[in-house]
UniProtKB/TrEMBL annotation:
GO molecular function: ATP binding
Top-level taxon of origin: Bacteria
Alphabetically ordered keywords of this record: ATP-binding, Nucleotide-binding, Phosphoprotein, Transcription, Transcription regulation, Two-component regulatory system
Protein name: Fis family transcriptional regulator
Length: 387
C-alpha cells in the first residue's frame, strides 16, 4: 500500500486531488495537510511514498517545505503544484530536488502518470538501498586483530583518493572484500564496481572481455560489444588474479592506465575512460617479472598502494568473531535459528590449520550448522569439521 500526502491550503482542490488519486488505485492511502507547516510536521513523523505540495500557501510556502523535507527524508519524491505557470519557479523546484512540477489545474493523465512514475521511483530507491545493505554486509570486514586493524586504517586513508591499490595474499583470505571496501568508502561509490577474474577468462578472450570488440573483429563477434573498462566508467574496476593475465592484455591495460583511454578489439578508435583500478593476486609478481610472465612497468603502475591480506593462520584471534558472523549470515540465508558454538568448539577451530583460509572456515561453519546440534560442541567439530 502506497502512502500519499497532499499539502494544499484550498480544501476544494485537496478533495479533488484525493478523489482522483484514490479512484486511480484503491490501495493508495491518501492523507491531507492544510498548510506547509502541518505538512512538514506530518512528513517528519510519518513515512510517505509520495508528497504532492502546493507552492503558494500560508505559514510556510511549498518551496520551503520542499527544501526542508529533502533534508529530513531525501528519498521521498515530492511533486510541486502551482497555479502560476512560472518557468523560473519550476526550475528552482527541480534544483531543490522536486520529482516533477505540475501547473493548476492539473491535466488528469499527466497527474496520474506522474504519481505512478514517482511511486515506481520510490520503490526502486528503496530496493537499491536494501540491495546495497546486503552487498555491504556480504563484503563486511570482520576482525579486530592487529593485521586487520592495519588494513582498515589503510582503507580509510586510501579509499577517498583515486590511488591505484594492489592487494596481495593467499587464496580465500578476502582480497575481494578489501576491494569492495575501497570502492564503498570512495567518492566513486555511486558509480559501478566491476569485477574481472582474470584467471577464469581464456587468454584469447581476455582482451575482448576487458576492452570490448567491434563486429567482425574475430569469429563469433556478431555485434559491437563494450568491455569491462567501459562498463566501469566513473567507477572502479577490480582485476582479480591479475597475475594470470596474458602479456598482450597487460600491454593494453598499461596503456589504459597511462592515457585513460582504451580501444576495442578490431578498432583503432580511442574511447576515454575514467576508471579507478584495483588489482589483486595470490602470486609473487616479482618472481613472475623475473620469469618474463608479468610486465614490470605495469606492476609499478598498479602498485601505488600495497595491501597485504594475511592468511587466517596469521590472525587466529579473529576466528571467534568470524564464526559468529558466519553463523548469523548462514542462519539469515537459510531462514533458521542462529546456532551457538561452545567455547571448546571455538578453541578447537582456532587450532586448525586453515590452508583454505576464510573461505574454508565459512564452509566448515556451514557444515557444522547443518549437521551439528543446537549448540555446536567440541564433538561436532571432531565429527564434521575434519578435512
Amino acid at each position: 500500500m502506497s502512502k500519499i500526502l497532499i499539502i494544499e491550503d484550498e480544501a476544494a482542490i485537496r478533495r479533488v486531488l484525493k478523489k482522483i488519486i484514490s479512484e486511480e488505485n484503491d490501495s493508495y492511502q491518501v492523507e491531507e495537510a492544510e498548510d506547509g507547516l502541518i505538512g512538514l510536521e506530518m512528513i517528519t513523523k510519518s513515512d510517505y511514498d509520495l508528497v504532492l505540495c502546493d507552492i503558494k500557501m500560508p505559514k510556510m510556502d511549498g518551496m520551503e517545505v520542499l527544501e526542508k523535507a529533502k533534508k529530513i527524508k531525501s528519498e521521498i519524491p515530492i511533486v510541486m503544484i502551482s497555479g502560476h505557470g512560472d518557468l523560473d519557479i519550476a526550475v528552482s523546484a527541480m534544483r531543490l530536488g522536486a520529482f516533477d512540477y505540475i501547473s493548476k489545474p492539473p491535466d488528469l493523465n499527466r497527474l496520474l502518470n506522474t504519481v505512478r512514475n514517482a511511486l515506481d521511483r520510490k520503490e526502486l530507491v528503496v530496493e537499491n538501498k536494501i540491495l546495497k545493505k546486503k552487498v555491504s554486509k556480504k563484503y563486511e570486514m570482520v576482525g579486530d586483530s592487529g593485521a586487520i586493524s592495519h588494513i582498515k586504517s589503510m582503507i580509510e586513508k586510501v579509499a577517498p583518493t583515486d590511488a591505484r591499490v594492489f592487494i596481495t595474499g593467499p587464496n580465500g583470505t578476502g582480497k575481494e572484500i578489501v576491494a569492495h571496501w575501497l570502492h564503498e568508502k570512495s567518492e566513486r561509490r555511486k558509480g559501478p564496481m566491476i569485477e574481472v577474474n582474470c584467471a577464469a577468462i581464456p587468454s584469447e578472450l581476455i582482451e575482448s572481455e576487458l576492452f570490448g570488440h567491434v563486429k567482425g573483429s574475430f569469429t563469433g563477434a556478431n555485434k559491437d560489444r563494450a568491455g569491462k573498462f567501459e562498463a566501469a566508467n566513473r567507477g572502479t574496476i577490480f582485476l582479480d588474479e591479475i597475475g594470470d593475465m596474458s602479456l598482450s592484455a597487460q600491454a593494453k591495460v598499461l596503456r589504459a592506465l597511462q592515457e585513460n583511454k582504451i580501444a576495442r578489439v578490431g578498432s583503432d578508435k580511442d574511447i576515454k575512460v575514467d576508471v579507478r583500478v584495483i588489482a589483486a593476486t595470490n602470486k609473487d609478481l616479482k618472481k613472475e617479472i623475473e620469469a618474463g610472465n608479468f610486465r614490470e612497468d605495469l606492476y609499478h603502475r598498479l602498485a601505488v598502494i600495497l595491501i597485504k591480506v594475511p592468511a587466517l593462520n596469521e590472525r587466529r584471534e579473529d576466528i571467534p568473531l568470524l564464526i559468529n558472523f558466519f553463523a548469523q549470515q548462514i542462519a539469515a540465508e537459510q531462514g533458521t535459528a542462529i546456532k551457538s558454538f561452545s567455547k571448546k568448539a571455538i578453541e578447537l577451530l582456532q587450532n586448525y590449520d586453515w590452508t583454505g583460509n576464510i573461505r574454508e572456515l565459512r564452509n566448515v561453519v556451514e557444515r557444522l550448522i547443518i549437521l551439528g546440534e543446537k549448540e555446536i560442541s567440541e564433538n561436532d567439530v571432531k565429527l564434521f569439521a575434519s578435512k
